[in-house]
Amino acid sequence: MLFGKIINIFKKFFMQKTVVKKLNASEEIRLIDSNNQEDFKNYLKNQSLAKKAIKHLFEKATSKMIKIYVNTVYPCEPEFLEYQLQVIRYADRKTLATYYLYFDLQPDAEIELIKRDEITPFNFYVTNYGLSPKAFEYLVNHGSKELVMSYFNNNALEDTDEIDMFLTHGKIDYISMFADMATNNEKEDMAKVLKNKRGEELYSNIYNQCSPMRSWMDLYA
């Protein structure tokens, strides 16, 4: 009985140590197209894909297979930069946290991060790296309330161009929300920017719908 248990332990040990045979590029592509997620993940843990197979994966494979690759391979290889949008779309939180250490996010990738609408990876990124003007404009116009609130809880509006962009492109609800939580210095900076927009519909909308801003707008009228 004891001898049988020992044999089973050795069998399991050697099965775990079995080396997966290296496939050529065409065979790797067939593996990718098979959509067999378990076999693909097992292969990636033992072998690296050829460049031709990597290109095929990111450009033609299913989202499930791309997700397996992104979250199994250590995220510092060149393809993780070349196909950055897919990486940001499919990476889990742990992979993203590691990925930020190796590559800067391009504006479109930052927008992809906003589209994920997940507070934790978004907070980790913006707290350490901020957002490009393009991504910030997308956030205040299309981002969720939770992400916008999180951004303003961790980032001050100090740049005149950023304030102008926020007031010009941000949803009025978000402008009102920010006005409720803004410091007096931030309200003053917003009023200074709005001074140059008197007579515009934007000015009237903010004055009528953002009560915390009225006294400051009157002061700089």
What would you say about this model in short?
The chain has 221 residues and is mainly α.
Q: What does this 3D model show about the protein?
A:
With 221 residues, the protein is mainly α. The chain has 17 helices and no strands. The chain has helices spanning 2-16, 25-34, 37-44, 51-60, 63-72, 79-82, 84-90, 93-102, 107-116, 119-129, 133-142, 145-154, 160-169, 172-181, 184-195, 201-209, 211-219. The longest helix is centred in the N-terminal third of the chain and has 15 residues, at 2-16. The radius of gyration is 25 Å and the shape is elongated. The termini are far apart. The relative contact order is 0.06.
Per-chain topology:
Blueprint: H1 2-16, H2 25-34, H3 37-44, H4 51-60, H5 63-72, H6 79-82, H7 84-90, H8 93-102, H9 107-116, H10 119-129, H11 133-142, H12 145-154, H13 160-169, H14 172-181, H15 184-195, H16 201-209, H17 211-219
Helix pairs in contact: 2-4, 3-5, 7-9, 8-10, 9-11, 10-12, 11-13, 13-15, 15-17, 16-17
Compute the number of helices: 17
User: In what range is the share of β-strand residues?
Assistant: under 5%
Give, in order, the helices and strands. HHHHHHHHHHHHHHHHH
Report, as a whole number of angstroms, the end-to-end distance. 91 Å
Rounded mean pLDDT is: 92
Which residues sit in consecutive blocks of at least 5 with pLDDT less than 50?
Answer: 13-17
What radius of gyration results from the CA coordinates?
Answer: 25 Å
What kind of sheet is the major sheet?
none
